[in-house]
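Researcher: Go.
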Amino acid sequence: MTSATSIELDVLGALLAFDFIGFAQKSAALDPADPAYGRAVGAAFGIAARRRFPEGAAPGEIDGYVAEVLGSLDAGAEDFDPAFLAGLLAAGLAGDEEPAGGLPDPETAIQARLVLTLRLARELGLDADGQRELLSEAAGRPAV
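Model: Structure:
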């Protein structure tokens, strides 16, 4: 596991634990210029998405899920394009590293995956042990 992977998973772990001070502190150590930037969070996101939708999901179901997620967010929801989030979710369900249209930029992609992974983990009812298991599984997968 690279240091970038470790830092990303620490950031995600802090977010899942609602440790917002730790999340902010750990996020400062992320390096968007690192070629591996976003891969660990992408792996965790893909795992969580496939656990939430074990049978996959039709495009309409994905669009409905994204609309529900965006409708539940207060601040920042307008920053995410629904079509991008739907593509990201579809790619995660398919095990693809990025959606068919590509990623707009590494920052937007990691932010969207963090938001969606937090939502998926909450829906899955992951307790502290379940969160550690998700992070451990993601550590063993270099991509979505």
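Model: The longest helix spans residues 106-124.
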